[in-house]
Structures are given as structure tokens and as C-alpha cells.
Specification:
This protein is an all-alpha fold. 57% of the residues lie in helices and 0% in strands. It contains five helices and no strands. It has helices spanning 7-10, 16-23, 26-34, 48-61, 65-69. The N and C termini lie far apart (34 Å).
């Protein structure tokens, strides 16, 4: 048995962001954003869920771009 906890075990399941992220239909965002995927522009460098989540977090917490990236 490992003494180290997995990332999932370390998270506070009662935290508002944990609850929020499990209520979002991330597949819907993926589907909608993939409609705008253009082969000429190249492949996305970051997962759509990450980029969408950061944008939502920025607006929910009223953060600057630089703060969200940190």
C-alpha cells in the first residue's frame, strides 16, 4: 500500500471549485469548440477543457490573465 495520496485523494471534495467542475458538461464545450477547429490553423496546443476552465475561473474570481496563468 502506497503512503502517497493520489491527486484525487488530495482534493477537498467540499470546495466550491471541485463541486463546480463536476457539474459542468465539459463534453458540450469540447463539441462546440471543435466545430471551429480549422486544419489550416493547426491543432490546439492545450486541451479545450483546460482553456475553458481557466476562462470560467478568470471570470468567476474576477482575475487578471496573468493571475490565472500562474
Amino acid at each position: 500500500m502506497s503512503l502517497m495520496k493520489t491527486n484525487e485523494e488530495q482534493l477537498n471534495r467540499k470546495h466550491q471549485l471541485y463541486i463546480f467542475t463536476n457539474r459542468v458538461d465539459w463534453g458540450k464545450f469540447e463539441k462546440e469548440f471543435l466545430k471551429h477547429n480549422n486544419e489550416k490553423m493547426g491543432k490546439h496546443t492545450r486541451p479545450i477543457r483546460l482553456m475553458t476552465g481557466l476562462l470560467i475561473l478568470k471570470h468567476l474570481m474576477n482575475l487578471r490573465d496573468e493571475t490565472v496563468v500562474e
